[in-house]
Amino acid sequence: MLNHPALDLVFAALADPSRRTMVERLSRGPASVSDLAQPLDMSLPAVMQHLQVLETSGLVRSEKSGRVRMCRIESTAFAAAEGWFAKRRASWERRFDRLEAFLADEGADDATAARSTKTSKPRRRR
Amino acid sequence: MLNHPALDLVFAALADPSRRTMVERLSRGPASVSDLAQPLDMSLPAVMQHLQVLETSGLVRSEKSGRVRMCRIESTAFAAAEGWFAKRRASWERRFDRLEAFLADEGADDATAARSTKTSKPRRRR
Questions:
Q1: Cα A54 from Cα A31, distance rounded (Å)
Q2: CB proximity list for B16: less than 8 A, separation 6 or greater
Q3: Is A14 part of the contact surface with chain B (CB cutoff 8 Å)?
Q4: Can you give the pTM of this predicted structure?
Q5: ipTM of predicted complex
Q6: Quick one: A54 exposed, middle or buried, by C-beta within 10 A (0-12, 13-18, 19+)?
Q7: Does B96 touch chain A (CB under 8 A)?
Q8: Among A124, B15, B17, B50, which one is least packed by beta carbons within 10 Å?
């Protein structure tokens, strides 16, 4: 995933507040371009340009249905970006688990030293 | 959170594969600038520029300790970006829950119709 080019486009697409507003709307269900434009203070062509960036990134898909262009979120690209955060958090939490285990061990060492050698129970290693 | 300016900077910072590699390294623990540069095929000044973007976004903090600049991840900015995805996923899953409930209701209607009016148990509404 390190140099996943799709992630470059997904994160670049999400770096704009109007595009995030569009994705926020689409996470509640499919919407037409006019639905997406409604909360945004911009022209329809400007909205279409933002939509284009979202579609290129793979986050959103749209298709014409009669005279209306309907848009929906693309779960694959969304999950890839979400997964990037999840992986970082996982390695970071593993680090804190190791730190906690280390400190628990240190504490056990101190306690063992204080009680001298009376207990024979092995100390916990995680 | 809709127009959170910090999110603009965080997502823009993550739109670059070298900067993501730096954050990936930092999620495993604090690192010096040379540690961060090690897997990247670029000059130290280029790494420093990327670090500057990460620091401006709030994702990373660095401080000089003697002759070494040590960098660490900033959990607040990280959590804000991660939280943006979590909120989208939550509203999207609520939508699927409602859809599922609707379909279950439709199914219950069909079953009730098929069994005529023999059962008096009220059908489940979620």
A1: 14
A2: A8, B50, B53
A3: yes
A4: 0.79
A5: 0.78
A6: buried
A7: no
A8: A124
